[in-house]
Amino acid sequence: MSTDKAVKDDFLRQAVPYRRELLAHCYRMLGSVHDAEDQVQETYLRAWRSYDGFEGRSSLRTWLHRIATRTCLTALESRGRRPLPTGLGEPSADPYDTPIERSEVPWLEPIPDTMASAEHADPAAIVASRESIRLALIAALQHLPPRQRAVLILRDVLKWRAAEVAEALHTTTTAVNSILQRARARLDEVATPPEDLAEPTSAEQRELLARYVRAFEEYDVAAIVELLTADAVWEMPPYTGWYQGAENIGRLIGGQCPADGPGAMRLVSTRANGQPAFAVYMRAADGAHHAFALQVVTPAPTGVAHVVMFFDLRLFAKFGLPAVLPPMPAAPIASVP
């Protein structure tokens, strides 16, 4: 085996285990699972090419995150922020109005837990990993300029020292501290207050989500409304409108959803951004249930507080979900005594 090949093989052996956390890092920076995958690929390519010059002054993990950060900052030079509809203005006034679609907007995307959550970590690290990719946090990060976003993530999520961040961004520790102060202040202005993100207990959440699935699959709008908090928020990119208040959301679902009655929808449970999520399938003319949308749900002790319904069907493949559900097994016929 040549020395060069041995070096490259050594790089792959050491670097591949960091792929998932690098993907989570790039996702926090970019707000898109598709863009994050591209930049992780670019990170590994750059690291592969320059591994011969890696001097080991920092850990390989730190070195890879440094490359990933610079790669994302370069990518962000030619891209705007990725919003959710709630980041564009006030809630829509009338849920009976036809929603306005803007597919040209680079909307924020969810990420599957299976792609970005911590592996082989203790429970505290797993919880911290999930909190750092919450949809509300990723949406708030999009309000920060790229350099502020990078500093805040490196300092507050990855817990780097200011000197390490300064070296990664080719700046001074004083500048890093100043940038971090501005980033935290801006995040406080746009982020959801922590008390609004309180979660129910595991048992309460299971019961709430089971009732939520049942209400949708039975297309029981009244039951859906009952499960929402009084000031719940509903948004659905690529449509620009967003809706607040359980009754308002009920009018939207009752007036705009194409479901034609019980059994029209089927929900498949998954997880995204450290939160419960559901793939929604809608019955089509052929009688089969086809991919329709992906919901990311924020449960609260008093009900479902926030739903983001993503209509980008490319996400189904990322979540390992089929485009069409197999038919439900027929109910057994009761025997007559």
Distance between the ends: 76 Å
CATH class of the largest domain: Alpha Beta
Strand elements, count: 6
Q: What is the spatial order of strands in the main beta sheet?
A: 2-1-6-5-4-3
Q: How many domain units?
A: 2
Might you state the CATH topology name of the largest domain?
A: Nuclear Transport Factor 2, Chain: A
Percent in helix: 40-55%
Kindly estimate the percentage of residues that lie in beta strands according to DSSP: 5-15%
The average pLDDT is: 90
Spell the H/E element sequence. HHHHHHHHHHHHEEHEEEEH
CATH architectural group of the largest domain: Roll
Q: Judging from the principal axes of the Cα atoms, what is the shape?
A: globular
Radius of gyration: 22 Å
| Spans where pLDDT lies below 50 across 5 or more residues | none
Q: Count up the helices.
A: 14
User: Which structural category fits the helices and strands?
Assistant: alpha+beta
Summarize the main sheet: 6 strands, mixed
